[in-house]
Amino acid sequence: MSWTSSHPKPYLGLEAQGLDQMSAEEPRKVIERLAGEFVSGARPPASRPPGGRWPVSREADAMAKAYLLVSDFDQTLSFNDSGQVLGELIGARGFEEKVAGLSRTHLVHQGGELAYLLRHDPEFRGVRREHLVEVGRRIRLKPNIARLVQVLDRGIPGYSFSFYVVSAAPEAVIESALDGIVPPDRIFGSRFDWDERTGEIRSIVRVPAGYGKVAVLDELQARLQASSDHIVYVGDGSSDVHVMLHVNHRDGFTVAVSETRLVTPIARRTILADDALAVLVPVLEDVVGFDRARVRSFFAAQGMSIREWDRVRTDRLSIDGPAGEGMAVPA
Fold this sequence. Notes:
This protein is of the alpha/beta class.
């Protein structure tokens, strides 16, 4: 960095003050003088360029507006649960009852029940990779996911959001469902080791459920060198509790897309809509800083309009006490 004559060299470093050419006693005197000037305010801690601001490179400015946005899959980007669709495909009965039973015993993290059934349940043990691919084709996706990814990437002036999917749903299901929309290297789901001879699942490699989602998120953050306060997580259910608490604790931003009792109180915002683009509303308001009018203008510029936008606060109460008695009035 070059400095003009009206702005002296920063006096941090021996060479800048000529201390490297002084006797053993002189540097101490100079340091004491500089310290005295700094405390008294006679001299600023360092010279600054015109305008009082340090020059910022384009790379640094871009990094300041770069965000990592991670989304769940089942019932966040879709209307279905992968396990239910798979059960219908192979004719397996009682999927919901089996999941409820695993939840009661706390044998697996919430969200990881399907991966457990695929490895251990007699009806689901016969599932092959082609079954999971077919399930992905049958998944009913929310509209405008491709448009959401495009807008997040380069549609918000001055901001860029790298979009990733992290879910406990089988990775093969998510890749099949989002084929041509989200690249496979941006999808992290339950991964299995397949037996090449029999075609069945030999072992479970990874299940991003519960704290497993936190591990994947930390891996992505390290890879992309994203700061903790530049992370947005979108989820819908109890399997997202751990990761939402993790993101909130580190000054990130969380969005719930359902009214699940365990998730709604944790998420910074809750948005209920059948369109994937609805996630943009809390992002534009709370991350980018748009007001409601500007959010509507942004959607209009994309050729879309927000037809209904109701903001509701709901208090859930459960009150116990004797019925039929008058309420005591405090003195």
